[in-house]
Specification:
The protein is mostly helical. Helix content is 73%, strand content 0%. It is globular and about 50 Å long. The chain has one domain. The protein has six helices and no strands. Helix 1 runs antiparallel to helix 6.
Length: 192
């Protein structure tokens, strides 16, 4: 069995590496426009395996860390982070449709449903984690992230020309919070 502190470190590494990988992919994927295109659209076509693997690896690391988070940061926080991980893994399996499109595929629809599930679970996790070892700063950070994630997510869907930028802001804000949560829980966990 993997020690809880290692699982939590893996969850933090997964959250950070997800952002790093999509930012590098933004710079090198031919024909891809990060200001306009969603992160998920990098999974389409040539080189798409990079973003698919990014979803899968991060999803598995977050699901694994959720076990340790449940014991350290609270059962609901752990479950919700596990849902985020499961949703990310599913987003890797169900490849997004290009935006805009005339006809949605079944896997594109599944990907969109999973995306709402991921960001909804992340938002709820922020509010459940605000109660764990609360300090005024931690509560403010959790609550402000819990408000910012859905607001930025809606903005990403509402502003066509810069939807990629808004989605990236959503992910950076949310995944940064995940990394901080994982590291904070790691500090609180018993040494291995």
């Amino acid at each position: 069995m993997v020690a809880p502190r290692r699982l939590l470190l893996g969850g933090a590494a997964g959250a950070v590496s997800f952002v790093v990988v999509f930012l590098v992919n933004d710079a090198i994927k031919p024909g891809y426009e990060p200001m306009r295109d969603f992160v998920s659209e990098a999974a389409i076509g040539r080189g798409g395996w990079v973003q698919i693997a990014n979803f899968l690896v991060t999803g598995v690391l977050l699901m694994a860390s959720a076990v340790a988070l449940s014991r350290t940061a609270g059962a609901w926080t752990g479950r919700l982070v596990g849902f985020v991980g499961a949703g990310l893994a599913a987003a890797g399996v169900f490849v997004s449709d290009a935006v805009p499109h005339d006809h949605a595929t079944w896997h594109g629809i599944a990907h969109n449903v999973v995306s709402v599930f991921v960001f909804g679970s992340l938002t709820l996790a922020c509010f459940t984690a605000a109660r764990w070892r609360p300090t005024p700063g931690w509560r403010r950070y959790c609550r402000s992230t819990g408000v910012a994630v859905p607001v930025l997510f809606v903005a990403a869907g509402a502003v066509a020309d810069t939807s990629g930028l808004w989605q990236r802001l959503t992910i950076v804000v949310g995944w940064s919070w995940l990394a901080v949560l994982e590291l904070r829980a790691r500090r609180a966990a018993r040494p291995e």
